Amino acid sequence: MNTVLENMTDGVHEDGIRRAGRVLRNGGLVAFPTETVYGLGADALDQDAARKIYQAKGRPSDNPLIVHIADWETIEKITEDLPAWAKLLSDAFWPGPLTMVLKKSAAVPFATTGGLSTVAVRMPDNAVALALIRAGGGYIAAPSANTSGRPSPTTAGHVAEDMDGVIDMIIDGGPVLIGLESTIVDLTEEIPVILRPGYISREMLQEVVGPVRLDRGLISEDPSVHPKAPGMKYRHYAPQAPLFIVEGSENRVREKINALTAAEHERGGLAGVIATDESLDFYEHAAVKSIGSRDEELSIAQHLYAILREFDLMKVSVIYSESFETPRMGAAIMNRLMKAAGHQVIHV
Ligand code: AMP
Ligand code: MG
To answer: Which ligand is nearest the CA of 148, by number?
Structure first.
């Protein structure tokens, strides 16, 4: 298949949006920018179109898709028993990086929800995405536009690495703003439950809806406690080389990583190091990349997946990462990094 590239790095182009909307309404696949990561869109109410997403990504069919909408009123058609929390959270955070899990209506096929009777809904904060959703019929299922298991794409170039020749169209809207997937909050329980941490923190949610808890599957060390969001149980976001997170005081982390990279060098391998602007110059015998400054957690979030992809291209033999306990997005950043590392942590 020839994948058409539409350039919208300078904003929405109406003619390109019309073409993309037509592809979606005919059951095709269009990758597009959002503020979190690039999404792989299909008509969420067309089960054959939704199935194509699973095929293109190689995604397990029990891992449900998030339905993207552009206008609050349109939520009625795809949900039932909408709780009052939904409107409160929409007023506070939509358009934005928050996904709500709600009871689904009959209009949403089980192919879209991975067989669940709930549906995940989000309104992205990106002008190209909102225009595309409206042009494509109003309900666009869109997981991250990567091959299943690879790091999520934060540029159109990343999307092309995985999807060129496989999907109908890629819209280039430039690099994304946030770089981590949305916070997912389940509103079908007694109190709201965070199923996936993201830019919108637990504290921000609690200011709007009162008590919010974290899904036990996210925090439990017990492997028999499964996360409620099916996607969170897969090893995800993973680079090709084994990744280890080194945790401890700043100095000891730096010393330990240098000892490990020297050992790798002696074995004839090349280690990649995920450092920060502050620690970049400290490391030796390794391919060292800064993920950003410790004072700017958004820059750490923005660069995480791109760095993992760069190390894939460089074919490093192992990756060592500092740990990033930043104040607001730290939980989300460390959740993705831990999953990329398959929970391999070296304590020093
Ligand atoms: P992605 O689109 O790649 O960000 O993945 C979507 C995430 O949302 C996955 O972790 C899914 O398991 C989760 N998800 C989607 N729909 C639901 C739902 N109805 N209930 C729980 N989790 C969901
Ligand atoms: Mg994904």
So the answer is: 2
The number of angstroms, rounded, from the C-alpha of 89 to the middle of its chain's C-alpha atoms is 20
Q: Tens of pLDDT along 125-182?
A: 999 999 999 999 999 999 999 999 899 999 999 999 999 999 999 999 999 999 999 9
Q: Does 118 sit in the ligand 1 pocket, CB within 6 Å?
A: yes
DSSP secondary structure, 135-150, as one string: HTTS-EE--BSS-TTS
102, β-bridge pairs: 119
Q: Is 180 in the pocket of ligand 1 (CB under 6 A)?
A: no
Tens digit of each residue's pLDDT (9 = 90 or more) over 191-243: 999 999 999 999 999 999 999 999 988 877 677 788 888 877 766 678 999 99
* Distance (Å) from CA 144 to ligand 2 centroid: 4
Would the pTM of this model clear 0.85, i.e. be above it?
Answer: yes
| Ligand number, closest to the Cα atom of 186 | 1
pLDDT digits (tens, 9 = 90+) for 21-40: 999 999 999 999 999 999 99
Index of the ligand 1 atom closest to the CA of residue 181: 4
Bond before 95 cis per omega within 30 degrees: yes
Pair 291, 300: CB distance under 8 Å: yes
Enumerate residues 6+ apart whose C-beta is below 8 A from 141: 41, 42, 43, 44, 49, 50, 53, 65, 66, 67, 68, 112
Q: Mean pLDDT score of the chain, rounded to an integer?
A: 95
Look at the block and give the residue holding tokens 């028999």.
Answer: 224
CA atoms within 13 A on the CB side of 144: 24
Contact 45 CB / ligand 1 (< 6 Å):
no
Residue 207 makes CB contacts below 8 A (sequence gap 6+) with: none
Q: Is the CB of 34 under 6 A from ligand 1?
A: no
